[in-house]
Design brief:
It is an enzyme of class 3 (hydrolase). Helices cover 44% and strands 16% of the residues. By secondary structure, it is of the alpha+beta class. 26% of the residues are buried.
């Protein structure tokens, strides 16, 4: 409905909210009831909200009954050994047998595998680790808690735990290719210098499935006693990541570092046989850095390439440090607080055309569409240009002067009146060329003054032959 403006009050005093805000409130209410009254209270709240999520004991009893009918005599030694390693003795041994049976074994007539228990274990581990992080990191904000959970609850971490806790030998399977992949991965983990070198590397997901399915089996065997599941799995998961030692995936770390520094990188992935080759190019002020990686997937290859770039940046004194409530950049070049940020502009759908697309222009000369002079338009045009050409983001120096008398700015519908005068200067470093600066006109607000400076810079770049601005 185009008549609805999010955040504005209607005639009845109501305020329109986006669906995400409402969903967050619903989740917060359920969380509050769980913290205050436990699982039963949370379920009552969910039912009141119209979410059907009853716990039916008969389903658990049925799962236990089915598992009780399975013969474990041929795997008695393996089950006893695994129970000893877990520190938990199963009442229904068939549940543990199901949890360690690879899916392919079902094809040879067993009639069961770990898939359903893995589905259940995935959910319960997510829930238990979320509760642990919430209770133990009361000072952490929501985004940091999400990062901590992502670092703990993921297939890669669970696969590594299976290797470090020596759980992988208990996986029952007859697949030669899977055994070879597991053997290769075990050696990779053993030889790894640190956890970061394993980030983005290919791993057998079946090991993560094994870890999750064991959690699901214990949950059923204890008749949904989540405290007992956590008693067993907390030592296996330890040490659980904290804000002080949180490691982001290399590709994400590189992305956030470049966002903070105002740099852009380009990525290119090529399939060669069974592997993917990735190349990341990062343009600093006057140095082009290249990181290369190889992996079975594009994600893994880009992770390796990003890791190489991060190490190269660190050797140049540029690093990324995760703090409890903020991320600090350490660089010998100060970062301006007024560095330009991308501004979405729905009216400006295409602001950058292909190089040399206008008649009479030299090959390689970027051509941008006519600049939208509405608020944010010039900055968006320059941002897209910098991203395309990998120019570092420009910085602003804005000065403010106060007037005793009101001053009018702009023309027509853009006319404003105010007592504050803002003037901005913009500086753009073009690799292998130098710094280009421009001073904008005085405006009634800071962002408008930055738009004015940006517009002057765009026209100055056109005079220098660095771009061509198209006609409206």
């Amino acid at each position: 409905d185009e008549t609805i403006i999010v955040g504005k009050s209607c005639d009845n005093g109501h305020r329109w909210l986006v669906s995400k805000s409402i969903a967050d409130c619903v989740e917060a209410l359920i969380g509050a009831y769980y913290i205050g009254g436990g699982l039963v209270a949370a379920l009552h709240m969910m039912k009141w909200l119209g979410i059907e999520a009853d716990l039916e004991p008969s389903y658990v009893d049925k799962a236990i009954q089915l598992a009780s009918d399975r013969s474990c005599s041929g795997k008695a030694n393996e089950i006893l050994s695994l129970e000893s390693k877990l520190g938990y003795e199963f009442s229904t041994k068939g549940l543990l047998l199901e949890a360690i049976t690879y899916a392919a074994e079902q094809e040879v007539g067993l009639g069961y595998c770990y898939e359903r228990l893995e589905f259940l274990g995935d959910a319960v581990l997510d829930f238990l680790i979320t509760c642990y992080l919430y209770r133990n990191h009361a000072d952490s904000y929501q985004g940091e808690l999400t990062d901590l959970r992502s670092a703990s609850v993921n297939n890669e971490n669970f696969a590594q735990i299976c290797v470090r806790r020596n759980l992988y030998p208990y996986l029952q399977n007859c697949s030669t290719s899977l055994l070879n992949r597991i053997t290769e991965y075990v050696q990779l983990v053993v030889d790894a210098e640190d956890v970061k070198t394993l980030l983005g590397r290919q791993f057998p997901k079946e090991l993560a499935d094994l870890f999750e399915s064991i959690a699901g089996a214990i949950l059923i065997d204890t008749k949904l006693d989540v405290k007992e599941v956590w008693r067993i799995f907390e030592p296996l998961l330890s040490p659980i990541v904290t804000p002080d030692n949180l490691e982001l995936p290399p590709f994400r770390e590189l992305t956030e570092l470049c966002d903070c520094l105002g740099y852009f990188f380009k990525e290119c992935c090529v399939n060669e046989g069974n592997v993917v080759l990735a190349e990341l190019k990062l343009q600093l002020k006057d140095i082009l850095l290249i990181g290369e990686g190889i992996g079975r997937t594009g994600k893994g290859a880009k992770g390796q390439a990003a890791l190489h770039l991060l190490r190269d940046l660190q050797s140049r004194g540029i690093s990324y440090v995760q703090k409890r409530r903020k991320r600090d950049l350490h660089d010998d070049v100060p970062i301006s607080e007024d560095s330009m940020e991308p501004l979405p502009n729905k009216k400006q759908k295409a602001c950058l055309l292909l190089p040399g697309s206008a008649g009479g222009l030299g090959v390689g000369t970027p051509v941008i569409a006519a600049v939208n002079t509405q608020k944010g338009g010039p900055r968006t045009s320059l941002y897209d240009l910098c991203k395309r050409l990998q120019w570092p983001m420009p910085g602003f120096e804005t000065t403010e002067h106060k007037s005793k008398c009101p001053i009018e700015f702009g023309e027509g519908s853009n006319r404003k009146q105010g007592f504050n005068i803002y003037a901005s200067k913009i500086s753009l470093h073009i690799p292998d060329f130098g710094v280009v600066e421009a001073m904008g006109e005085q405006r009634a607000d800071k962002k408008s003054s930055q738009d004015s400076a940006t517009l002057c810079l765009l026209y100055k770049l056109q005079e220098l032959g660095k771009l061509v601005i198209g006609c409206s």
